[in-house]
Specification:
With about 325 residues, this protein is α/β, with parallel strands linked by helices. The protein folds into two domains: about 210 residues, Spore Coat Polysaccharide Biosynthesis Protein SpsA, Chain A; about 80 residues, no CATH class. The chain has nine helices and 15 strands. Strands 5-4-3-6-12 form a five-stranded mixed beta sheet, with helices on both faces. A hairpin with a 3-residue loop joins strand 14 and strand 15. The protein is globular.
């Protein structure tokens, strides 16, 4: 709220009281402690609470987290084994709800939010809601710390996804079909309407499935251009010439198994729009060709992608327990 003094022409900015309590939820699995500490330091001043859900990390990480909990910097939920990202999110969300938070902020263990990220996300969310829009979530524009390139937001296209970039100060919000989970701010009213994450998917496309389900219930997702987060996708980035130079994120064969399996499983659900099935089919074909030709170990990559397709057709959900080598 602004008050203008007519005598002096001074504009006095009086902060408005915002009725919110944001809980940051960080799911960890064998994290880099230096990166995790940087994340905790960056997010603590921005939220009203931090809960870390640990998926069976090595003892050094668990002991470090226990020290942080004793110092009052965070709350810790230890699962004892790797139950997956979706299960970790659900445990954290349940904890936040029990403790009367109004919003959750999902974060990967190696993401770093800019100083004002949460403030910008909250401002955008309230602005959109004031327009009568049912908002599933708002997410930041994330930048790769290695390349310095900012990511885009996805909208459906005739055959493949249309990448929409933030461009100039006039573009504040970008409607997006889905957001990556890390950095996404979700109000509990949306979680109550849409339901929890699908822990049967375990890791990949968990966020996409939830946003597609939310879209079927009339909720919309938005990218917020003036909210920034530093985040890397994949184990490493490889620069390839595919019509133009592109940075392609490489994952392990096991991660590609989950992606292909989950894409098939999600595509079979009745609330998923045909446009997503079409766009994702083109994406899968692109990924299969690129990773078959360029991503070592190529034989294992092919085997696990095909295994993922087969298990997706069979509806085999949950954690993969076979040989990923």
């Amino acid at each position: 709220m602004y008050i203008v003094s007519l005598n002096t022409f001074m504009i006095i900015n009086i902060p408005m009281k915002i009725d919110h309590d944001v809980c940051a939820i960080v799911v960890t699995y064998n994290p880099s402690l230096s990166k995790l500490e940087a994340l905790i330091n960056a997010i603590l001043p921005q939220v009203q609470g931090v809960v870390v859900v640990d998926n069976g990390s090595h003892m050094d990480a668990v002991e470090w987290l226990q020290i942080q909990q004793r110092e009052g910097r965070l709350s810790l939920l230890t699962l004892g084994e790797n139950l997956g990202v979706a299960a970790g999110h659900n445990r954290g969300i349940a904890w936040a709800q029990q403790n009367k938070f109004t919003h959750v902020l999902l974060l990967d263990q190696d993401s770093i939010p800019a100083d004002n990220m949460v403030e910008r996300l909250l401002s955008a969310l309230m602005d959109l809601q004031s327009q009568g829009i049912s908002v599933s979530g708002v997410g930041p524009r994330y930048t790769d710390p290695v390349t310095g390139h900012s990511a885009w937001f996805n909208q459906f296209g005739p055959l493949k996804y249309r990448a929409v970039y933030c461009s100039g100060s006039e573009t504040r919000y970008i409607p997006s079909e889905f957001l990556i989970s890390s950095g996404t701010l979700i109000p509990f009213e949306a979680l109550d309407a849409v339901g929890p994450m699908d822990d049967g998917l375990f890791i990949d496309l968990v966020d996409t499935e939830w946003f597609l389900r939310a879209g079927a219930r009339g909720y919309r997702a938005f990218g917020v251009c003036d909210a920034v987060m530093y985040h890397s996708v994949g184990e490493r980035l490889v620069k390839l010439w595919i019509g133009r130079w592109q940075h392609i994120p490489y994952h392990t064969p096991l991660r590609h198994y989950y992606y292909f399996r989950n894409a098939i499983m999600v595509a079979r659900r009745d609330y998923v729009p045909f446009q997503w099935i079409m766009n994702e089919s083109v994406q899968l074909a692109f990924m299969f060709v690129v990773f078959t030709l360029t991503a070592p170990p190529r034989l294992q990559q092919v085997r696990m992608m095909l295994k993922g397709v087969w298990d997706g057709i069979r509806g085999r959900a949950g954690k993969y327990t076979g040989n990923a080598g």
